[in-house]
Amino acid sequence: MARLRRVALDAAAAGLYVFPVQPGGKLPAVPRHSAERCRRHGICAEGHQGWEQRATRDRAQICRWWSGDESARFNVGIACGPSGIVVIDLDTSTEPLAAWGGATTGREVLDQLTARHGQTLPDTFSTMTPTDGEHLYFRMPERLELRNTHGGHGHSLGPLIDTRGGGGFVVGAGSIRPEGAYLVAEHGRIAELPDWLTTLLTPPSPPEPRHGEPLALPTRRANAYVAAILAGESAAVEQAPKGQRQITLLTAARTLGRLVGGGELDADNAHALLLDAAAVHIGVDGFTQAEADRTVTRGMSYGARAPRRIDRRHSTADAEGRGRSAGEALANATANWITENPHGRADRIEHLPSPHGPRADLDDLAPDPGA
User: Fold this and answer.
1) Rounded CA gap, 195 and 138, in Å?
2) Annotated region Disordered: where (predicted)?
3) First to last CA, the chain
């Protein structure tokens, strides 16, 4: 359809970065070299780029994307980060929210939130979704990248309200789904995000981390302990539900970062392990490889500032473990764990201290708002 190509060109002319979305759907139609199958992060040798990196305002590229019988039917995705915008996504529900006066829409929740803060919302460009939701477009504050939030979790504005910023996208007006079309609800300029909303959506800076004391364990038990941490954090990331993916990945990265800081793990291998675990989420609901990479880097960097060391006590039974370098721990840990506990259960080491440190530490690092 030439109409959808015109929609994409008009959005680009308005300063928005666009990319193709599956016909009749809301999932990215790029990259061709998919992040789900690519074992690397960033831009790999084969030229892998995610939808956020490929989003463009270039007319020639847009015309190439929306040409031919099939590709002309692509819906239009708008990459919020490159476009410098934050989109407030107001959803609907059939269940009244008692804490919000029986509200059943994100619009009602937002209106109540606005009133509670004694504020008003500026007029801004907005669209209606095929399922009666609303997308309110706002300009991102300068020198600040706000990330995605999921209603009712982390630093979200409230239930039934998601936000899309860096690492997120929305489907643009004019796109079509089986339920109907995305329509412009209010024409005009995109307003600046109000300061009070910026404050609510900005996570606080983390406090200085507390350093843990070395954990004294015999070498073989220490290896099993490290292996159990790796297996547990990897499984937690893989199984993280929608709305908890980024905080789970961030927490896992912080945990492994502490062990990297203590010389127990190799940083590159730990980073790769977490990205492998997160691979199942890439491309789902706008969660990108770049976002996963940033989350792991951020969490490991923070965790390394509170190093976790294991004081290996040597004995005759542990002689084979002597002299192992910290870099070997990650490579050998899983094999050691499987050998000592072939069923993959952690019940033999339940009494060991938590690798996260005191429970209060888990809340020290505020999550990058995300999916």
Assistant:
1) 11
2) 304-327, 339-371
3) 32
